Write a sequence for this structure.
């Protein structure tokens, strides 16, 4: 947690942490506290009449099958996003690790979706899969498969998963490739001399050795799917059809920002915040351990 | 090369090429859409090859098209996005370097309290606490300013977290040596820590620049002055036009322009970005 | 050096601001008009500003309807509210309940001594926004109503001779179209508005108690009645049969119509501009179909779109500017121009007759369908509009439940009962929050 050797006590450390602490208090802790307070209130949109209702908002959430459904949707969505984006990047990284010549070029060609705004990424995929205009839809129709993600919940889920995973492939690819390139070549050579083919080498040597990277990426991807895909859902499905892509973060936004149900939305934020703190603690533990060796 | 298997190598290239094509497909579609006119973009099947309207659309978007739909020319929006992204990146890196330095290298009362206060902000996205945050910014009279656009988004610990990891891996001997030489803490920070975390700073700059550039809801909420609009906001405005069909050719042209600057940043800083990222794992 | 330049610049910009402030009082107008209509909003403001020099209306785009409304609410809570904000019709109950926040337009006009006569306005338009004691609360701006858009070429090809006026004819026409190679018969957008709210008004049935919410916050939804259920069940069946094809909650299904996939489309009359630009066929608009065994003739349809609400908390002098602008906005010339350009209905009788005089409806046949449909009969309590709290969320619920019917995961009966039950919970919540 702290260096064994350190500087003596003075005013300096306080001055150093001051800017961040000030910004955190003003722009995070204070609004978060207000959200906490608001979660105990029933209020009209303009804040003209306010009633303190203790835990009513929470009770209501816990009795709302649609809120509990959003939990389930979020978990499914996160697993699918993490699975798809990590799977694709793992294959691509394994291939790039093999080819040596051109690996950097491939990296350059694969890295850029990282830079695309979720709102824009969503718009692009909506356009490609539009039930009438979409290019992919056209190809599907040609093949005799009908695509309408506005109607079909599974297709809608698939579309948001693709859009979310697409943005994350580059990030995962970078880490997998770096992890693979860090494996001593002598290990692989030794296995090759023993007669192990590329596939076998991958599963017996490379994959086990990059497992810390895999675990790290798993955490990152799940966090990403949980909290950072808001813009994609917003642009692609707005949670529909029939709630099939309603994830927790989007519901907080939709109830609070769109529906102006400030109390209920604040209660959801508080629940999310608790989840965040738990996830942070888990991730922290893990990273701490890693740094130890 | 460990062994020579031309067939497997060919297969690897094939898979990679497929990967690149799939990943790049949306970009191609965007480009193609930006080279056709409005009517062509509403007729099935949509074109897969570029048309001849690229320059016309570019001119429209740059000088008049967006002006017509109530937002300033793309140039101003790009400039605002740039300022916002740079302020967020530089601001967050600066405050995080300082606070990580204090937390790792000093032992002082309330260190743990500060530590947790900062780290609890780690993941909660702005969208979730957006209304109370808006109230704070409004009360501080920061609506319609670059400060209002950027500072609230700086309140997150990811960068502090990363620098803390970096500093923890720097050998203690360096500090001991510095102290024997009589170096002050700030001198140690400047001469040793900063140079040693150069790649991490670069990687973070890329991440934060993109984060700032891609903000949508926050700028929408706090700007009322057309001259403060950002480009990602501008695109959504074109998508959301009430009771009208979206003008895909212009949307895609603007999207192309909005994607370009952050993509260039990623590509130019690619080496440092990758190195800084993967060496500390975030 | 840098510092002094900076100071010079700030001093200069300060002076510049003061100059502007002396020249005209600013009136902030937050709106949700993106795209080409955003352009028109700017033109209206600019033209108004050019007519006088005391006030300067500044239009500010704040995102889509919900984003604009939330931005105004957030701004009000932080005491930074605009003078005028454009709110869509489903936000009416929320705005109306906020008595301390909104400045009713008729009251405002009276307070500043601006001439105003609510009988100049079309009853079907103003009834939606009138308080129980007959006072207009907000200024109608962009109002439209759903109509039936149809593809004349496809009709001819499939041998459909008359435009359907009843749902039975809709079904028959759709069958003919599909048999002749159309991908579907019809589609629609804004489904709660078109197939439940307007459907009920058109058949002179309430969607809720207490006069559709007009006369009390203790209203309850009642649209899970036999007729609505039967209609939704039919639509669900037609989706299965391929006569109807769902394409999204808002206007997303427009390409289905303009590309000739579905020869009929029910949605706002305000899509006129987009359809005219995109359709490569002869098209027309007609009144909505009805069930001839439920009513012998349809009542009138209700409007959608948005009105301009004035918010409290500014100098009384500012409101003079607001009043002047509202008068300008509802002048026959401005209204007729707006109506003809956008496809929204004119809000005053004078603008309607001006458009008639100008020969607009003769050179653009069908464009008066919306206004005729709105004023088909004197609005009843069932067809004046609706006023439910939390209605943005209730519409979302209706969307969700209807989608479950379209994709065959719920029966129409279940879906409507659940929608009403979930909606009523939100109504009770709204009642509680606005005691």
């Amino acid at each position: 947690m702290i260096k064994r050797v350190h500087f003596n006590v003075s005013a300096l450390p306080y001055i150093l942490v001051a800017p961040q602490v000030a910004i955190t208090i003003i722009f995070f802790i204070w609004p978060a506290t207000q959200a906490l307070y608001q979660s105990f209130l029933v209020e009209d949109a303009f804040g003209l009449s306010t009633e303190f209702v203790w835990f009513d908002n929470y009770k209501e959430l816990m009795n709302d099958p649609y809120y509990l459904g959003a939990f389930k949707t979020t978990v499914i969505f996160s697993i699918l996003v993490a699975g798809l984006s990590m799977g694709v990047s793992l294959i691509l990284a394994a291939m790039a690790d093999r080819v040596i010549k051109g690996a950097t070029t491939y990296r350059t060609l694969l890295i850029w979706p990282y830079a695309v705004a979720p709102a824009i990424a969503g718009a692009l995929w909506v356009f490609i899969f539009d039930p009438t205009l979409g290019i992919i839809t056209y190809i599907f129709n040609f093949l005799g498969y009908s695509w309408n993600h506005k109607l079909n919940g599974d297709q809608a889920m698939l579309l948001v998963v693709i859009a979310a995973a697409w943005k994350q492939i580059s990030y995962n690819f970078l880490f997998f490739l770096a992890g693979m390139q860090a494996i001593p070549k002598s290990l692989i050579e030794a296995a090759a001399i023993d007669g192990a083919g590329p596939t076998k080498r991958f599963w017996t040597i490379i994959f086990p050795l990059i497992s810390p990277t895999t675990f790290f990426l798993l955490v990152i991807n799940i966090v990403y799917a949980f909290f950072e895909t808001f813009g994609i859902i917003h642009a692609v499905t707005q949670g529909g059809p029939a709630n099939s892509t309603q994830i927790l973060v989007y519901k907080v936004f939709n109830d609070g920002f769109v529906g102006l149900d400030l109390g209920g939305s604040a209660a959801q934020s508080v629940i999310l915040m608790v989840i965040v703190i738990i996830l942070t603690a888990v991730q922290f533990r893990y990273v701490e351990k890693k740094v130890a060796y | 090369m460990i062994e020579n298997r031309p067939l497997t190598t060919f297969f690897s290239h094939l898979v990679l090429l497929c990967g690149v094509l799939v990943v790049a497909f949306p970009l191609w579609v965007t480009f193609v859409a930006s080279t056709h006119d409005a009517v062509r973009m509403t007729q099935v099947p949509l074109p897969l090859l570029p048309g001849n309207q690229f320059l016309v659309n570019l001119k429209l978007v740059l000088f008049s098209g967006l002006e017509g739909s109530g937002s300033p020319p793309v140039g101003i929006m790009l400039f605002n996005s740039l300022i916002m992204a740079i302020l967020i990146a530089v601001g967050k890196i600066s405050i995080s370097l300082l606070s990580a330095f204090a937390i790792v290298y000093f032992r002082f009362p309330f260190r743990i309290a500060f530590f947790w206060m900062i780290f609890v902000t780690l993941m909660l996205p702005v969208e979730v606490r957006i209304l109370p945050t808006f109230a704070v910014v409004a009360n501080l009279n920061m609506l319609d300013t670059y400060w209002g656009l950027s500072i609230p988004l700086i309140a997150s610990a990811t960068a502090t977290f990363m620098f803390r990891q970096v500093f923890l891996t720097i050998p203690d001997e360096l500090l001991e040596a510095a102290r024997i030489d009589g170096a002050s803490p700030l001198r140690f920070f400047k001469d040793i820590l900063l140079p040693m975390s150069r790649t991490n700073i670069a990687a973070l700059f890329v991440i934060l620049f993109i984060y700032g550039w891609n903000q949508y809801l926050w700028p929408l909420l706090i700007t009322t002055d057309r001259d403060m609009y950002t480009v990602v906001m501008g695109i959504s405005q074109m998508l959301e036009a009430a009771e009208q069909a979206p003008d895909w050719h212009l949307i895609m042209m603007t999207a192309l322009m909005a994607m370009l600057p952050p993509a260039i940043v990623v590509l130019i800083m690619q080496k440092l970005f990758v190195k800084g990222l993967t060496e500390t794992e975030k | 050096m840098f510092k002094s330049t900076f100071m010079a610049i700030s001093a200069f910009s300060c002076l510049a601001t003061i100059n502007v402030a002396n020249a005209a009082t600013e009136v902030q107008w937050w709106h949700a008009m993106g795209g080409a209509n955003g352009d028109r909003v700017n033109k209206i403001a600019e033209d108004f500003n050019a007519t006088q020099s005391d006030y300067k209306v500044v239009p500010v785009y704040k995102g889509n309807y919900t984003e604009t409304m939330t931005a105004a609410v957030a701004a009000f809570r932080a005491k930074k509210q605009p003078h005028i904000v454009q709110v869509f019709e489903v936000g009416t109950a929320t705005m109306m309940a906020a008595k301390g926040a909104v400045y009713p337009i008729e009251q405002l006009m009276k307070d500043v001594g601006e001439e105003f006569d609510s009988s100049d306005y079309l009853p079907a338009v103003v009834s939606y926004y009138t308080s129980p004691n007959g006072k207009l609360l907000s200024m109608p701006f962009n109002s439209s109503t759903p109509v039936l858009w149809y593809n004349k070429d496809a009709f001819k090809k499939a041998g459909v001779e008359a435009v359907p006026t009843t749902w039975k004819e809709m079904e028959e026409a759709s069958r003919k179209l599909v048999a002749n190679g159309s991908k579907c018969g019809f589609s629609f957008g804004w489904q709660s508005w078109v197939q439940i709210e307007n459907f009920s008004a058109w058949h002179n049935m309430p969607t809720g108690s207490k006069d559709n919410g007009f006369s009390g916050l203790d209203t309850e939804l009642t649209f899970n009645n036999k007729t609505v259920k039967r209609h939704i069940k039919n639509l669900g069946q037609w989706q299965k049969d391929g006569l109807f094809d769902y394409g999204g909650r808002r206007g997303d299904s427009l390409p289905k119509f303009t590309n000739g996939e579905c020869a009929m489309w029910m949605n706002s009359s305000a899509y006129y501009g987009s359809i005219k630009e995109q359709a490569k066929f002869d098209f027309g608009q007609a009144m909505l179909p009805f069930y001839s065994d439920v009513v012998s003739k349809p009542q009138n349809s209700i409007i959608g779109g948005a009105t301009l609400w004035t918010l409290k908390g500014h100098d009384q002098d500012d409101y003079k500017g607001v009043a002047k602008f509202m008068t300008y906005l509802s002048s026959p010339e401005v209204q007729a121009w707006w109506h003809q350009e956008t496809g929204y209905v004119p809000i005053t009788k004078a603008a309607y007759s001006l458009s008639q005089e100008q020969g607009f409806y003769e050179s653009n046949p069908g464009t008066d369908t919306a206004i005729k449909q709105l004023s088909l009969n004197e609005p009843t309590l069932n067809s004046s509009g609706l006023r439910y709290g939390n209605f943005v969320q209730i519409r979302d619920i209706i969307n969700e439940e209807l989608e479950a019917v379209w994709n065959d995961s719920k029966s129409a009966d279940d879906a409507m009962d659940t929608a009403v039950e979930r909606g009523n919970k939100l109504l009770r919540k709204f009642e509680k929050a606005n005691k």
Notes: The mean pLDDT of chain A is 87. The longest strand of chain A covers residues 41-43. Chain A has two domains: 12-52, 58-292.
